[in-house]
Design a protein that fits this description.
It is built from 2 helices and no strands. It is an all-alpha fold. It holds the Pfam family DUF1467.
Length: about 90
């Protein structure tokens, strides 16, 4: 795997993990006055920097596992059995 394809795979993993991490820890403000133009369910403090850091750590772990399986152990998509007959 080249560095460009590795970077592309890491980018895809990062965005997928980000969407899984975004809902964690959000608290909907109750009784607070809402800003004009926001929905009722908008979190008061989304802590995006913390979520980006958590996403990066998880993505590095997932990418490391992917690299281990594909490059070190040598597994690929061609190793899976063919379910559709030719």
């Amino acid at each position: 795997m080249g560095w460009v394809s590795g970077l592309a795979i890491f980018f895809i993993i990062w965005w997928t993990v980000l969407f899984a991490v975004l809902p964690f820890g959000n608290q909907i403000p109750e009784g607070e006055e809402q800003l004009l133009g926001t929905q009722e369910e908008t979190p008061s403090n989304p802590r995006m920097m913390k979520k980006a850091m958590i996403t990066t750590v998880i993505s590095v772990l997932v990418f490391g596992a992917f690299y281990l399986v594909t490059e070190v152990l040598g597994f690929s998509f061609s190793d899976f059995p063919q379910f559709v007959p030719s």
